[in-house]
Structures are given as C-alpha cells and as structure tokens.
Amino acid sequence: MRPARLLLPLAVATGVLVAFPLAAQDTTAGRGVHIGMQYTPGLKPNVLVLAIPGDLRDSARTIIERDLDAGDRVTIIPNTGGQLAAAVGGGSAAMNYALYAKLGAAAVVQCTLAPASLHVVVHDVGHARVADSRDAVISGAPLGPEWRLAVHGASDEIERTITGVRGIAATRVAFVRDGQIYEIDADGANARALTGPGLALSPAWHPTGRYVTFSLFTPKGTLIAVEDVQAHAVRTLAATPWGLNTTPLFSPDGNTVVYTHGDEGGTDLYLAPAFAPGAARRITVGKGTDNTQPTFSPDGKRLAFTSGRLGHPEVYITDIDGTDAELLTPFEYGDADAYRASPDWSPDGRLIAYQSRVAGTFQVMTISLRDHAVKQLTSDGLNSDPSWAPDSRHVVFTSTRTGVQQLCILDAESGRTRQLTHGSAARIAAWSRALAPLP
Amino acid sequence: MSRRNSLWSSIPTLAVIAAALAAAACGKKQPPAQPPAPQPAPPPAAGGPNQDSLMRAQRTADSLAAESQRMAAAVAAARNTITAPVYFDLDKSDLTEQAKAVLDAKAPILSANPGLQIRIAGNCDARGSDEYNLALGQRRAATVKRYLTDHGVDGARVDLISYGKERPAVEGDSEDAYAKNRRDEFEITAGADNLKPARS
C-alpha cells in the first residue's frame, strides 16, 4: 500500500467541509488486507466515522454508524450531523492522527462515494496508519434495499478490520406477521411480505439467502414450501403432498430440508431433497410422541430438536441418521413446570438457545454444549423462539415486553437489547447468514 | 372460527329446508328411514264425504309434516353430536371421561352413516410454543381418531389436522378461554347430505 503524500486539511467541529481534489484518491490499496488492529474482547474501541462527501442526507454514514453500534463491539464517537469531515483521499499521511487520538478514537472510518462503489478506508489511529482500504460495490437506487445491503456489507467489513469479527448488518430476519412470512433488514429497514394472505409459519433461510422455507397451511394440508425470494416464486416440496408438515430448515450444505411430519403415529423429523424430486427419509422414531423444531449443528452431522417423549417438551440431540438421541436440557424429575422448546444451534457450534418456562412464562436461555452450563438471557415479558445471528453473539426472539409480540435483538454478551420490528405483531424469527460479502 | 359459527347458525336453516323438502315430497320419492306413524281411524262422518276426506287429508299432511320435522330435528341432533368438540387438560392429549362420553355418542352415528367422513382438527390454548403446539394439536387429534377406530370406525373415514394455537375458539388469556381452546373440532368432509340419526 502506498499512501498518498498529501496533507489533508480537516474541518473539526465547525461544520465546514473542506473540498479537496480527487487526485490523491487511493484506490490501489490491496483488497482484503488486514493489518490487524489491537482488539481486546470486552473492551470496545472508540470509532469515529467521518462525514462522506456527497452522501445523500448523510445516510450512508448514519447507516454505518448505526451498524457498528448495533454490532456491540465498538463505541461510536458522536459525530453529530457529520461535523467531523475529511477531504477525499485516504492516505495515512493525509490524516491528522494526533487530533483523532485526542478525541479518543482508536479507529477512524473514512468513506468516499462513487456512482457504483463505496471506497472505505479504516485508519488505525494508535499506529497512525491505514488498517484497511477497499471498495464495496454499490448497486440499486440510493437508500433502496440493494443499496442499503451493500452499505451494510461495508459496515461488516469495517467491523472485521477493527475487531477481527465480521459484523452482522448485511443480514435479514424472516418472521411471521398476520399469517404471512415477512423479511426485514437486520437494522429494522425494508420490512416486506414474502407470501400472500393465508397462514404460513416457521420460516428458515437457505445458507445463501436466496431461498426461504416455511410451513404453508393449504386445503390439502400443511405443506413445506420453498420460496425463491429474488424471483418471488413459491413451490411446495414433493415429499409433503398432504398432512401436517411443519418447522422446516435447510441443511448447512443447502441441499436438503429437514422438517416435522405428523400423522396418527405421532410427529417425527424427516429429511427430503430441497431442490430435486425424491422421497422423504425418516430421522426420529418417537413412537407416538412429538418430535419437532429441528436445528442443525454447523457441520450438519447432528440435530437438536424438541421432543415430548418424557411427557413434556425438552431439547434433545440426535445424529442425523436418528441414532443416539439424548436429552440435552437440564430436566429434573418432578419439575411440573418444565417446558423447554424451540432450540437454535449457534453458528459457531458452542451454544444452543431455547425457550424455557420460568414462573409460568417463557424466557430465552442458552446451554453450552461443552459443559451444559445454562444462562438466562431475558426476564422482561414472555420471550420465545430465539434465532442466532451469524456472529453467534446476537439473538433475535419474540417478546411481549412492549405489550404486543415484537421481535427483539439481544447481545448475549452484554445483555443490550433493541427492538427490531414495529407495527402489527411479529413472531417466530429466523436470522439469515451473511448476505452481501464484499468482493 | 367464522366457519364454525356459520355452520352452527346454518343448522336451523337446514332443518327448515329438510322439513320443507320432506313435506313437499310427501312420501312420493324416498320413504323416511322409519315408517310413518299409524294413522288414527277416521271419525264418523260429520259433514259429508267431501269435508270428511279433506279433514283426513289434512290430518295425514299434518302427521307427515310432524314426522319430517321430527326427522329434521333428529338429523340436526346427529350433526351436532358429530361436530361436538372434545376438550383436553393443559399440555395433555389424554381423553377425559367427559371427552369419552362425547366420542361415545359419535360412534353410532358414524356406524349408521357409512358414507360419512370427518376431519378432526386438534387445537391448543395460547400458552406453549407456537410450533410445538402444532405437534400437540396433532397428538390430540390422533388420540381421538384412535379412540374412534377402537370403537369400530374405519380409520380411512377420519382425516387429521392440527392448528396448534393458530385458530382459537375464544380470544383472551383467561383460564376459561384456555379451557375452551384446548379442543378437537370435528368437521364433516363428506356424506353430510343424507345424514341419518343413529339406529335405535
């Protein structure tokens, strides 16, 4: 990387944006170069996001600031109205690092908007150098869904540069509202229906984010549907032509769907091809009990699921061939209040989040697969149906804490919670994997 | 729920229509399932043969109308018996004695109507996991189907579905609402047109 040898004047707290010629623009920095800033887990480095020249209503900077804040790994230094601005450019020699150090910044984010890209430079203030410099491809109309997703992708890479962990802004959450499947950006923007009127439940994302599977109530029965969310095309799985079929999810390789099929012999887990014709294969043999709500281990070799085989729901783990099913959650015989359901396996494989009945209501818990240690994440209202973000740190869940069912996002590390949905009731959320990695 | 309401409200209408049809048919087409009650002997002639035959005809018509009304009521009662819901305890799919009594009344009507097909829809109260409740509703429906097949009903005539807690009969979070929502509902899917009461 060859920083431009130019001293960029800086307008500090005066509201004056100093325009500067584009000649010094550094676009030659190697893509994906991570110099590695010092990040200590638990400590949140202070980050300043400079105003972006030509930013429509300051929106790109606002989105990046909000994304970094929502990631809960950095602290944003307020830059009200984008008063702190740097001229276009990006070389380390152009930055007044001493000034940013005085402001307490560990990192400074400097972006430049071009018609089809966002040039992002992350400055390591402590070392007075550029930590990362890259271009994010921006498509779609400004502030439209694709444009926003691209900016979120840039935020996530900034977070990776500063903390070593990719952010979770370029993701979406699918959920149920008024019997329809909806999706919403992880920052709460762009809520929109994926299905028409009727009753659909239990959405789950394909690993690519291209498809969502869910259960669809029809006159023929409750069927497993797969929707191409780009083409808005819905089809039902050939393996589920009738009867009760619920709680589908894609395998980590995206090729199969595991779901619950119920008949007079009970409800059990089955596996069927997601995109090819083919018969279903039974996984669990519950002998008339309820076995539902499957969730895959990240390697796709095991499943956690809810089973009523003890007479009430608890969470179990089985191998994908249905053998070696064993109780995971800490049931004590004689506990009449016991009710544990809705497991979701964290993408890093370490934890399973679930809902547990506590004093007559439900709370979201996690259990460690290493030592079976249980942690209660919520206490306010009825909280259910957790789903992990790709960072294995944030959880989206249904909560009644506002008086009506809405989705909330909680940072399992700090406990910080924000409300994701507003308006009519929302429930049964599923968090996608990363949707827009930078090239 | 609305479908349930309309079904209930349509029962009196169906009874009236059935009565009207039976009266109109007047034994011309299909005979009723049971023979008409024996006619009382005509009274001695009072006002000439014309008057006498008119009165006799009127009495016959009255008697037939009464009979068809009785039939319609019996059919409506049979329909009510078939569609009467059964209720469950919290988180349970076991049949209570009350539920068994409700089902015991259904079995003879199903026997008397081999063409009758039903769908059992299992439902839950508003507590519990939305998704797990779909499985619990299915188990409630399956328990009732097993009871009916154990009592001689052909399993091919009984379809199962579960709505979990998605279609409450009663809105609200009271114990009373919960109790009314933990239920199996029964819908006639075929053979409703010529429904016969149970053979006595």
Short structural description:
The complex is a heterodimer of chains A (439) and B (200). With 439 residues, chain A is mainly beta.
Care to count the β-strands of chain B? 4
N-to-C series of helices and strands of chain B: HHEHEHEHE
Largest sheet of chain A: 8 strands, mixed
- Helix- and strand-based class of chain A? mainly beta
Based on secondary structure, the structural category of chain B is alpha+beta
The average pLDDT value of chain A, as a whole number, equals 88
The tally of domains of chain A stands at: 2
CATH architecture descriptor name of the largest domain in chain A:
6 Propeller
Residues in β-strands, percent of chain B: 5-15%
What this model shows, in words?
The complex is a heterodimer of chains A (439) and B (200). Chain A has 439 residues and is mostly beta strands. Chain A has two domains: 10-163, TolB, N-terminal domain (Rossmann fold, 3-Layer(aba) Sandwich); 172-431, Neuraminidase, CATH 2.120.10.30. Helix content of chain A is 8%, strand content 39%. Chain A contains three helices and 31 strands. In chain A, strands 11, 12, 13, 14, 15, 16, 17 and 18 form an eight-stranded mixed beta sheet that branches. In chain A, strands 3-2-5-6-7 form a five-stranded mixed beta sheet, with helices on one face. A four-stranded antiparallel beta sheet of chain A has the order 10-9-8-31, with no helix packed on it. In chain A, helix 1 packs across helix 3 (145-163). The two termini of chain A are 18 Å apart. With 200 residues, chain B is α+β, with helices and mostly antiparallel strands. Chain B folds into two domains: 2-79, no CATH class; 85-190, 2-Layer Sandwich (60s Ribosomal Protein L30, Chain: A). Helix content of chain B is 52%, strand content 12%. Chain B contains five helices and four strands. Chain B has helices spanning 2-25, 48-83, 97-112, 130-150, 175-181, and strands at 86-87, 117-123, 158-164, 183-190. Chain B has a four-stranded mixed beta sheet. In chain B, helix 1 runs antiparallel to helix 2 (48-83). Chain B starts with a helix and ends in a 10-residue tail after the last strand. Chain A binds chain B through residues 179, 199, 201-202, 217, 221-222, 243-244, 246-247, 260, 262-267, 288-293, 306, 308, 312-313, 339, 341-342, 355, 362, 384-385, 427-428, and chain B through 91, 128-132, 134-136, 138-139, 142, 145-146, 155, 160-163, 166.
